[in-house]
Amino acid sequence: MPQILIVEDQTNLLRSIMRTLSESGFEPEAAETLGAATQKMSSRIDLVVLDLMLPDGSGLEWLKQLRATGNKIPVLILTARDSIEDRVSGLDMGADDYLVKPFALDELLARIRALLRRDAQANEREFSFGDLTVNLVSRIVRRGDRSISLQNRQLELLAYLISHANQIVTREMISRDVWKESTATWTNVIEVQINQLRKKIEKPGQTAILHTVRGQGYLLGDPP
Q1: Could you tell me which residues come within 8 angstroms of residue 172 by beta carbon, excluding any fewer than 6 positions away?
Q2: For residues 169-191, b (16+ Cβ closer than 10 Å) or e, as one string?
Q3: Which of 41, 96, 151, 210 is the most exposed place for a label (fewest CB within 10 A)?
Q4: pLDDT range class, residue 138, cuts 50, 70, 90
Q5: How far apart (Å, rounded) are the C-alpha atoms in residues 129 and 119?
């Protein structure tokens, strides 16, 4: 069941949300301060419902710091601040949705379900191998804490290699499944793209993970 963290210091409202989420099949976790919320984030959390005015600080600043670490967990802001400027500020800080108090619990549930569906769809287009991650929806590529800029074709090629990690991938396979045409087999286009991709994902000090297997193709993984 999805784990939902509710960061809210109004005790009655917190209890009401917790009860509603439990009855709807979620596993709610409560945090009445930002410090408690940070501790809770060390375990698996699928979505955060975040108040902005907490006893120990600003929910917006907490969200900003969360996004600065690369954490992309869905966050739904729940607050009494209802101005356009507040909404824009919240979304710009990295919130995925914004719900103003007072609100209907049914609407909160609907928004939570929508965010979880969207996150699940995005994850279906995310590929990871070790510390290397490619998301075809956001077009974000990272290796460790380093962001990598790739052209569209390189992005698709890397995702394909990750989906076949530790397997030898031939030029014919890449031509058919990435380029969608067989003629690329007879050109050096694939080799050029592989070499450019290798330079971008393997910087000095990082382990080599993209290998050319002579006479066979390419392998993303341990050396052949």
Answers
A1: 182, 185
A2: bebebbbeebbeeeebbeeebbe
A3: 151
A4: confident
A5: 20
Structure tokens at 185: 């087999």
Asked if residues 60 and 90 have their Cβ atoms less than 8 Å apart, the reply is: yes
- Tens of pLDDT along 84-110? 888 888 888 889 898 999 999 999 999
154-159 long-range contacts, CB within 8 A, separation 24+: 154/193, 154/196, 154/197, 154/200, 157/193, 157/194, 157/197, 158/127, 158/132, 158/134, 158/197, 158/201, 159/127, 159/134
Place of tokens 């397997």: 167
Residue matched to tokens 């279906």: 124
Each residue's pLDDT tens digit, 22-37:
999 999 999 999 999 9
Output the pTM of the full model: 0.57
